Amino acid sequence: MAEPLILITDCDLPGDAAERTLRAAGLRAERAPETSSATLADLGAEAEGLIVQWHRIDGDLMDRMPRLRMISRLGIGYDMVDVAAATARGIAVANTPSYCIEEVAAHTVAMIVAQGRALPAYDRAVREGVWKAVDARPMAVRPSRTTVSVLGFGRIGSLVARGVRGLGFRVLVADPYASPDVVRAAGCEPVSIEEAIAAADILTLHVPLTADTHHLLDAAALATMRRGAVVVNTCRGPLIDEAALAEALGSGRLGAAALDVFEAEPLPAGSPLREAPNVLLTPHAAWYSPEALEDLPVHAAENLIRYLGGEPGAAIVNPAYADAR
C-alpha cells in the first residue's frame, strides 16, 4: 500500500522541515509549485492531508480532493479554511496553537508598554532635538492607575494578562468561553466585551477571526472608548475597521495604536494607518523567533502524523467533523 500523500499548498517559510518531518514518519510529501485551483486539485487528487499557510481552502477545492481527511494550518488562525465546509465533509481541521505563545505575548506586552509609556514619541522628540519629558506626548501611564482590557483569554491572551498584571496594571477580561472564576483567580476582572472596550485605557485583541468578530472594533465600538485610549492588535487584522481606526487617531479621539496585523498584508502603501499619528507598526512579526520558525512547520506536520496514525494530540478545531464521517 502506498504511503498517504500530504500536499503543502503554500509556504513562505525557509527550508523543508515539514517535508522532512512527514517523510521521516513514512508519509509522502509534495509542495505545490503554485496555488491555482487546477494545480492544487490535480496534485491533491490523492492527498489525505493538506498543510496550508495562506491559500484559501473552500468547499469546492475540498470536493476535488476526494481522499482528503485533514487540513493542518501553518499558524494559529485558520480563517483561510472554510471550517464549516470541512466539518460537513468529515474533514478535520487543525492549527498550530503552541508554537509562538511566548513570542506573541511578549510582543503584545512590549507594544502595550511602548505606547503606554510613549516610547516612540519620546524617541522621535530626542532625535528632533527636543529634550522635554512632559511634552513628547500627553499620556505616559502609571500602571496602577491604568486599565488594560484583554479581549480573549486563551493561551496568548491569558499570558498577556499575567504579564501586564505583573507590572501593576488593572486588567479586565472579556471572553464568553472563559470561566469567570478562572479569570478572577488570575487577578483579573471578568466583564462583557462592550464593558471591556468602553473601560479600556489600553485595549488588546486576542480573539479568533470569524464572521462574528470581523470588524469587532468598528466606528461604533471605537466611539465608546475613552478619549486617548490605546488599541493593540497582534491577532488578526480584520478584527479592526482600519479606516475607522485611522480616523479616530487622526481626530485625536484615540491616543495611539500598536499593530502587527492588518486587513491586507503587506500593509498597502496607501493605507491611512501609515500617516495616522502615534501608530507603532510591525510586519506581522509577533510570532517570530528562531525557535518559533523551527517549530511551526514541524508542529503542522505532526498534526497530520498523529491524526493519520490514530494517535491523540492533533490540535483539531472542529471536533464535530467526526459526526459527518
Descriptive report:
With 325 residues, the protein is α/β, with parallel strands linked by helices. The model has no long low-confidence stretch (mean pLDDT 96). The chain is elongated and about 70 Å long. The chain contains twelve helices and twelve strands.
Summarize this, please?
The protein is an alpha/beta fold and 325 residues long. It has helices at 17-24, 37-43, 59-63, 83-88, 101-116, 119-127, 155-166, 180-185, 193-199, 219-223, 242-250, 290-308; strands at residues 5-8, 28-31, 47-52, 70-73, 92-94, 147-151, 170-174, 189-190, 202-205, 230-233, 256-259, 279-281.
State the end-to-end CA separation.
22 Å
Class based on secondary structure composition and strand pairing: alpha/beta
- The fraction of residues assigned to DSSP E strands is 5-15%
- Kindly report the spatial arrangement of strands forming the biggest sheet: 8-7-6-9-10-11-12
Descriptive tags:
325 residues; alpha/beta; 5-stranded parallel β-sheet; D-isomer_DH_CS; D-isomer_2_OHA_DH_cat_dom
